[in-house]
Amino acid sequence: MIPLTQQGKKVEDFEKAVSQKCKVKYTAAVSSGSAALHLALLALKIGKKDSVAIPSYSCTALLNALQYVGATPKFIDIDPETLNISSEDLKKKMTRRVKAVIVPHMFGFPADILEIKKLGLPIIEDCALALGARYRGKPVGYWGDISVFSFYATKVIATGEGGMIATRSKSLANYIRDIREYDRYENYRVRYNYKMTDLAAALGLSQLAKLNVFLKKRKQIALYYDNFFSEKRVQSRELYPESKSIHYRYILKTDKSVKELIKKLKKNGVTAELPVFRPLHHIYKSSHLCRFTDKIWKSVYSIPIYPSLTSLERQQIVRVVKNYDS
């Protein structure tokens, strides 16, 4: 019987499995992707006097994690073809206060981390949308000083809630494992209730065993859509040698009002979405210029690509999208 609350053998097994998948020696399972980001920043000793570079075109979890530690965000524009953080804009906006950069692989499309590594900043590699993707022959999660994953219900594999941290540094791993659970320590310091349960880990192990099947189905759906939407598709080709996207989302450009188009599609049975709800520099009311982010936000939307999508559902999606966005 698997206990509901215990962090035990199943958690250890899940950590080892993710470690092997990502080719990273040390892993620590946690309660969510947000918890993973928070602990990663703490492990890198990011605090109130520091700034952290993040892409504005991303989930608010990044902004929240910086608020947890009191750091200031430095909003970076994106590459309009990949939707990933722009290394060129990062170079332009570098200051002495910037102590780290968070690099998400947006929608399963690998970011060009080697170019960012040249800047010498500690990298938190955000793999929440990209488990199973590869960058230059290595799995995502391999490249960062610390890498984070999410196993929320909508992610590539799901444990209901859950996350993972991976690193090649034994000292960083030991620190993270120490502060992810708060009780039964002789020496007191602020720690967190961020542990993963064996129940969640057991589900994660089951899901991880099916990962290749999930990714194969996503690729099949993407190829089907390409027959109809290849000219409208964003993130349409691999840009780096030996890299591979996992097709987490299928994103289309439109000349129409994207919000009005999404309403029409939903009214006709297609759950289209804004890939990013709102750029982070808008939420933060920052003066940082992110012109490609602003342009992309106003002109792209995603259509369903989850593995259980049936052939009839795909046909309906294509028919409705072509009818309203041709």
Notes on the structure:
- The protein has helices at residues 9-22, 33-43, 60-69, 87-93, 113-117, 170-179, 198-209, 211-229, 258-267, 280-283, 291-297, 311-324; strands spanning 26-30, 51-55, 72-76, 98-104, 123-126, 134-135, 138-139, 146-150, 163-167, 250-253, 300-303.
- It is α/β, with parallel strands linked by helices and 326 residues long.
- It has a seven-stranded mixed sheet with strand order 1-9-8-5-4-2-3, with helices on both faces.
- Strand 2, helix 3 and strand 3 form a beta-alpha-beta unit.
- The chain is globular and about 65 Å long.
- The N and C termini lie far apart (54 Å).
- The mean pLDDT is 96.
- Mean model confidence by pLDDT: 96
Shape: globular
Uncertain spans? none
Question: What is the topology, as strand order, of the major beta sheet?
Answer: 1-9-8-5-4-2-3
Radius of gyration: 20 Å
Order of helices and strands: HEHEHEHEHEEEEEHHHEHHHEH
Task: Please outline the major beta sheet.
Answer: 7 strands, mixed
What's the helix count?
Answer: 12
Strand pairing plus helix content: what structural class?
A: alpha/beta
| Overall number of strands | 11
Report the helical percentage.
25-40%
Strand content: 5-15%
Cα distance, first to last residue?
54 Å
Brief summary of the model shown:
This protein is of the alpha/beta class and about 325 residues long. The protein is built from twelve helices and eleven strands. A seven-stranded mixed sheet has the order 1-9-8-5-4-2-3, sandwiched between helices.
